[in-house]
Design a protein that fits this description.
- This protein is α+β, with helices and mostly antiparallel strands.
- Helix 3 packs antiparallel against helix 4, helix 8 packs parallel to helix 9 and helix 11 crosses helix 12.
- The N terminus is likely disordered.
- The chain starts with a helix and ends with a helix.
- The strands form two sheets. Strands 1, 2, 3, 4, 5, 6, 7, 9, 10, 14 and 17 form an eleven-stranded mixed beta sheet that branches. It has a six-stranded antiparallel beta sheet with strand order 13-12-11-8-15-16.
- It has 14 helices and 17 strands.
- It has three domains: 108 residues, no CATH class; 115 residues, Probable inorganic polyphosphate/atp-NAD kinase, domain 1 (Rossmann fold, 3-Layer(aba) Sandwich); 143 residues, Tumour Suppressor Smad4 (Sandwich).
Amino acid sequence: MSTESAQKMEASSSIPTSRRWLARAAWAALVAAVVVIVADEGVTGLTLTVAALVGAAVVVVGGYWFIAKRGLLRWIGLVLALAAMVIIVVFYVRQGVVIVALVALGLLVLGGAAARAALRPSSAQWMPTTPAAPARQPFIVMNPRSGGGKVVRFDLVDKAKALGAEVKLLDGPGYVDVAALVRDAVARGSDLLGVAGGDGTQALVAGIAAEHDIPLLVISAGTRNHFALDLGLDREDPSTCLTALSDGEEVRVDLGMIADRPFVNNASFGAYAEIVQSPEYRDNKKRTMLEMLPDLLSKSGTDLTVRAGRTTLTGEQAVLVSNNPYGAGKLRDMSRRARIDQGELGVITGHLASTTEAVGLIRRTGHQPITAINGGSEVIIDSDSSTIPVGIDGEAVTVDTPVYCTIRPRALRVRLPRVRPGVRELHAKLNWKTLWHLAFGHS
């Protein structure tokens, strides 16, 4: 037996039997879905499949016009997208193939579920934790306006004080220097820094905590709480985060940096960063985005260049640099990270300046308007402009170009409650070539 054949046999035997059969079940379900349509409807079945694909393209085009155009064309786009969905449903009903379509759809869903189960990493492990003694002198800043008033609604101030924490409310008139408050607490001997507020405030305090090697307590009292989500904290009841003061454990995570400014989640450049800069954004986010997107998507003079290792991307309208990569190829996971301690930046770029590029969102080949790469330890963002707007964890700032984004591996100690919901597993990315190899004997 040749060495190559022996290696193939060894690789094949290393695949768990359960994953192999899941992959085979996925292919069987997908083939069965096609057979159900063709066997029952023949050529008509293929016509129905093509009609569904055309309908999906029309929905994407209509949606793009709605966000990228103004006036009458915007509303035509919305009507077009809605009409395409209604027409496809009516077409299937009139052809009398609703049952067949539902059976085929069910098989596709089962096949997709089996495929993702087969492709799911077999040894996914979360970040290592270590036991932590109760804090002796914790200091917590709380923003009563954050998250629609969660600090008051969940009585966080009294609950924190009952556990021995010193609490400072950010409710005074005018500007409050949060950094000065926190540094003063450190100077007075605080051995834990906590934040009940948005991710921007979390990042500010996280930088000081990392600087002094003091643990950070994240309290999920913000609006979205993306950092809390990736730490496995309870976002529905922020008061549960306070139990870390007496019954906690620690995890070390990375910290992203732009010059001397830290970020715990991400830094956005281009279209979204310009929207965040708008004074109206805080009061009405959705309306502000709809008002500004047409101009931003049609701009050609603010295209961004991204350099990450040996990869260079040019002509990008929007760039998101994250503290560890987002997602696993699934749209629903693009705001989540499996781990935050891998010492690597994530990069997602987008260019959506035409209807053709919008349709490219549903294609598997050719130019893809959305690109995701691993950025390594440094990502450089450049532009023809001398300064560009940046949204750092949702906070609007303006920085000089080129912008250097770096990462500090495991620089931040985070104190977590020992009992918490935990992190939901990310969805596996569908890779048909890998699925074929899993099903039929290759590593």
